[in-house]
Write a sequence for this structure.
């Protein structure tokens, strides 16, 4: 039995057929969607996200020319140059939220989904699921992407700006992360973990 997060009405998640969504009978709140092969699709997007993050971290992100000088910047440079300008705290925050938190989220998600899809019981299933719950609340990668768009628009008025390979990889990584997180229905995830734990 599960409770509606909006009004606490009790409902039964085991009765939800494949490719159907459940909404609360009292308040209409979306409760769960049982998609076919959702975990397999989420795992594919998770691996794609990790590969794109590796490309985004190691290739030029922005290239700009001003006053006869050409500068190429990687995502790592954006975090570490803040240390050089005495903004160590801000640099640490950028590094944590742009690299560490999303990479940890995707890695935990990949390990959890791999275990779930294998169908073997494991004491790591609920541990990974709990860690994933915490990491999801710290995932703000889309906010960073919006700030990059705003900064790029401002820079474009001051210098000749080119978008590097990493920029497109980062957009792809953000999309893959959002899609994979949204494909994993929390109710269905815990149902599958409980079924394997029995
Ligand atoms: Zn409700």
């Amino acid at each position: 039995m599960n409770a509606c997060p909006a009004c606490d009405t009790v409902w039964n998640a085991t009765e939800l057929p494949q490719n159907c969504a459940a909404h609360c009978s009292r308040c209409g709140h979306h409760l769960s969607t049982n998609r076919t092969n959702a975990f397999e699709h989420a795992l594919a997007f998770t691996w794609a996200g990790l590969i794109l993050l590796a490309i985004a971290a190691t290739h030029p992100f922005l290239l700009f020319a001003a006053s006869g000088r050409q500068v190429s910047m990687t995502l790592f440079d954006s975090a570490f140059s803040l240390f050089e300008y005495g903004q160590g705290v801000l640099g640490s925050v950028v590094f944590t939220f742009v690299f560490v938190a999303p990479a940890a989220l995707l890695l935990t998600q990949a390990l959890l989904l791999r275990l779930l899809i294998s169908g073997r019981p494991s004491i790591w299933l609920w541990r990974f699921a709990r860690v994933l719950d915490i990491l999801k609340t710290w995932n703000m990668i889309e906010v960073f992407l919006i700030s990059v768009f705003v900064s790029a628009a401002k820079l474009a008025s001051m210098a000749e700006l080119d978008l590097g390979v990493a920029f497109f990889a980062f957009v792809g990584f953000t999309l893959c992360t959002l899609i994979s997180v949204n494909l994993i229905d929390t109710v269905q995830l815990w149902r599958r973990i409980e079924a394997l734990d029995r």
Remarks:
- The mean pLDDT is 89.
